[in-house]
């Protein structure tokens, strides 16, 4: 009765898939496609408020989102604990899921299991419900999560090896130019620092042989002495290569992210680093971070018991929403494991959600990742800004952002006009536009 009295019963759910311009950023699987799919979720209540959510827009996610959207009609936005059971009931087993040993080539997020796909869809609906609830009550989302512990959230510059343009001139052009060597990476980092005020830097590796990426990190360390650096090859290296790179860069890296694939491999690397004698500097072992081998609650026990990772890079899309992100944070704090946030290509709704939940986590010990500065398009009336490498936490009701329906319509028309070739992210397929004979490299590559 309380939900009905306050007009919190859901009367309509709108799903709008879009294609968003993406630069030619390189990773171990290939290159980003000219456009990436995202799904915008709108949940409207009897009281006339509409909450916004965002998640992956690939066809496999859309197939799950559609029945869940219909099943939400008539339910209160406050019934967040009922969402997982509802999703399990109406969504069924998603198409496109792989076995536990496979790797999702599009998202580079470890195995693409049925449960993970459902959680990623669920996350967008949970955020939309929280946004609607906050708008209806005049409260920011962070208040619904228990209240903020910081007014600003720090982010890291996300550096990529990249081409100047997509193969064949596809997609939207930008003025960043190519970055294929240490000088190019440093120039990119300098622009990020000067434009957004970032003071920590993460390089997406696994693209070139490790010695070349070691040289790039060393060049960053020389340009930005004493500032936090990270390297993420997305599991592209063997255990011996991972150990060698860790030894080479232990004096300059804040952490090494997913150097090798899987919990077992990460545990081997971590064990070797624990057993290594400190160097002349007396430095401690280099922490390992992950957003690949710990992406669900079921994966925590083995990884923590084996001390395979020392920092978890959470992602509310992976974990099923903002409340699960807080649960993960509590578990990490209990076991003395560090916490930060992972990012995939996203728009402003997701960045706002990241910022709201990050504001509530006490021991967020490392700057968060964000692709947002790379995105030239958005569905908001006003882009979210970075100041001194940080985003201010909004105290406005809900997420504190406003949907621009004209921009949404433009990006949706692009999705409708696509022949299907871009509606599923596939970095390996995008690379074949440049090299038709390319075979997706097996891991480990080196």
Kindly describe this structure:
The protein is of the alpha/beta class and 446 residues long. The protein has 15 helices and twelve strands. It has helices at residues 2-5, 59-71, 83-91, 114-137, 141-144, 182-196, 210-223, 239-249, 262-275, 300-305, 316-319, 322-334, 348-358, 405-417, 427-434; strands at 10-21, 35-45, 50-56, 152-154, 157-160, 201-204, 229-232, 255-257, 288-290, 311-314, 338-341, 390-392. The strands form three sheets. Strands 5-6-7-8-9-10-11 form a seven-stranded parallel beta sheet. The chain has a three-stranded antiparallel beta sheet with strand order 1-2-3. Helix 2 (59-71) crosses helix 4 (114-137) and helix 7 (210-223) runs parallel beside helix 8. Residues 277-284 have low confidence and may be disordered.
Keywords:
single chain, alpha/beta, seven-stranded parallel sheet, 15 helices, globular
Write down the Rg. Answer: 21 Å
Q: Could you list the spans in which at least 5 consecutive residues all have pLDDT below 50?
A: 277-284
Name the overall outline.
globular
Biggest pleated sheet:
7 strands, parallel
What's the N-to-C terminus distance?
61 Å
Helix content: 25-40%
Strand content: 5-15%
Q: Give the SSE order as H and E letters.
A: HEEEHHHHEEHEHEHEHEHEHHEHEHH
The number of distinct helices, counting runs of at least 4 residues, comes to 15
Q: How do the strands of the widest beta sheet line up side by side?
A: 5-6-7-8-9-10-11
pLDDT averaged residue by residue: 93
DSSP summary, beta strand count: 12
Query: Strand pairing plus helix content: what structural class?
Result: alpha/beta
